[in-house]
Specification:
This protein has helices at about 1-25, 30-50, 60-85, 85-95, 95-110, 115-130, 140-165, 170-190, 200-225, 225-230, 235-250, 255-279. The chain has one domain. The two termini are about 25 Å apart. It is mainly α and about 280 residues long. The protein is about 80% helix and about 0% strand. Helix 1 crosses helix 3 (about 60-85), helix 3 (about 60-85) packs antiparallel against helix 7 and helix 5 crosses helix 7 (about 140-165).
């Protein structure tokens, strides 16, 4: 069951950047952020209308606020990056997120600094350099945005681990949807473009896949450990690369694959090492 939910989560996560790319020629990135969270918020309002709004009580509101400021800027940068560069390359760079989260956990959660973490982080950075090949090709603003988004999402992961000790996942997700809707509305209003009928499929993909993917991942973690499920996250790259080639004619460079394997392998190694250290 853990594998089933993990594969489904990877497939849904793969669909989000494809939906963003479908919309990026017509809609600004911040407007896509707003639509993704505003429409997704309705799912959670329906959920809480059945199970009670008392579940929204929290003693960690400031942590939710800090988490979702990182989440908002990270998602904005991520959607901008997808509109500027090949989707598969953006996803490959985003694989650095769990390694940065491990570093932030040392700095802000007081977790033990182990040699295996530094080895994994160094290997992951080598993978980033292979993908970007600085000095050989221009790095580009889109690549910097993808990396900035990964760093901010790593911060979100650290906040999530802290909030997970006190607040249920449904509460954290509701504040995520509500706050990002609130944050995205003012800038979206300044650049608003009225969606047309051809934008509806892309909007539905972003909203449905973006809302369902985190739920599937939480379900997966109920049945299996993170170390066992992490490799299935790598499915995002071949799935997205295949659809990007079919839908948008985007080929994926060999250097993207090599770098992605190094980054993802480093993240998997770090997760396995952390698990052994806790036993």
């Amino acid at each position: 069951m853990g594998v089933f939910w993990a594969i489904l989560a990877a497939a849904l996560h793969s669909a989000v950047p494809l939906g963003v790319r479908m919309l990026s020629d017509n809609l600004p990135a911040v407007q896509i952020v707003f639509l993704r969270n505003f429409l997704g918020l309705f799912f959670f309002l329906i959920f809480f209308s059945f199970y009670g709004f008392g579940k929204l009580r929290t003693t960690k509101f400031s942590f939710h606020l800090q988490r979702n400021i990182c989440n908002f800027v990270g998602m904005w940068l991520w959607f901008e990056a997808i509109s500027m560069m090949p989707v598969a390359k953006a996803i490959a760079l985003h694989f650095i997120e769990p390694l940065v989260a491990a570093l932030l956990a040392i700095l802000f959660l007081g977790e033990r600094s182990r040699a295996t973490r530094w080895l994994a982080l160094g290997t992951g950075l080598l993978g980033v350099l292979i993908i970007l090949r600085p000095g050989v090709i221009p790095i580009g603003v889109g690549a910097l945005m993808a990396l900035g988004s990964a760093v901010l999402y790593a911060g979100v992961s650290v906040y999530s681990r802290h909030l997970g000790r006190t607040d249920p996942a449904s509460t954290t997700t509701f504040y995520y949807q509500a706050m990002l809707t609130f944050f995205a509305l003012p800038p979206a209003m300044f650049v608003w473009v009225m969606p047309n009928s051809t934008d509806i499929p892309g909007i539905m993909v972003v909203v449905i896949a973006g809302t369902a993917a985190p739920y599937c991942l939480i379900r997966a973690f109920r049945y299996a450990e993170a170390g066992a499920l992490l490799p299935f996250g790598f499915l995002r790259l071949p799935v997205t690369a295949g659809f990007a080639f079919v839908l948008f004619g985007e080929p994926t460079e060999i250097w993207t694959w090599v770098g992605a394997v190094l980054i993802f392998g480093a993240a998997w190694y770090n997760t396995r090492s952390e698990r052994r250290a806790r036993l």
